[in-house]
Each structure stands twice: as structure tokens, then as C-alpha cells.
From TrEMBL:
Record-linked InterPro entries: Mo/tungstate-bd_C_term_dom (IPR008995), Mop_domain (IPR004606), Transp-assoc_OB_typ1 (IPR005116)
Protein known as: Molybdopterin-binding protein
Species the sequence originates in: Agromyces atrinae
SUPFAM superfamilies per the UniProt record, alphabetical: MOP-like
Domain of life: Bacteria
GO biological process: molybdate ion transport
UniProtKB keywords: Molybdenum
Domain Mop: 2-67
Length: 69
């Protein structure tokens, strides 16, 4: 698979927590944890399990930056 997004971070899945319809997937990217909220169906289709490798793909228009005053 190829993807046009440049903000892709490869890491290891540390936890998959399914809810009623949405799952939280935690990925360790070089010691930092990234959490994604995706559907349970997507978890199943992608075969996401703790210990597996995955990419966190960040849509740049949804990233905000802040600093302290």
C-alpha cells in the first residue's frame, strides 16, 4: 500500500481497547504514545493487536500547535 500523507509515524501497537462502536489504538512511536480513535470494524479488518506494527497517519489539517504564555 502507498499513501500520499507525509505525516506517517511507524510504531508498535501497545494497546487496543474496543468500546461499543469505537476503539482506541495506542501506538508507541519512538517512546511517545499516539492514540487513534477508529471503528471496531477497522480494527478487525486491519488485524490490529498489541505487539503488531502499524503507522499513525496524521492529517495535517487536524494538528494544532500551542505554547504557554
Amino acid at each position: 500500500m502507498r499513501i500520499s500523507a507525509r505525516n506517517r509515524l511507524k510504531g508498535t501497537i501497545v494497546e487496543v481497547t474496543k468500546g461499543a462502536t469505537t476503539a482506541h489504538v495506542r501506538i508507541d512511536v519512538g517512546g511517545s504514545l499516539v492514540t487513534a480513535s477508529i471503528t471496531n470494524d477497522a480494527v478487525d479488518e486491519l488485524g490490529l493487536v498489541a505487539g503488531g506494527e502499524a503507522y499513525a497517519v496524521v492529517k495535517a489539517s487536524d494538528v494544532m500547535v500551542a505554547v504557554d504564555d
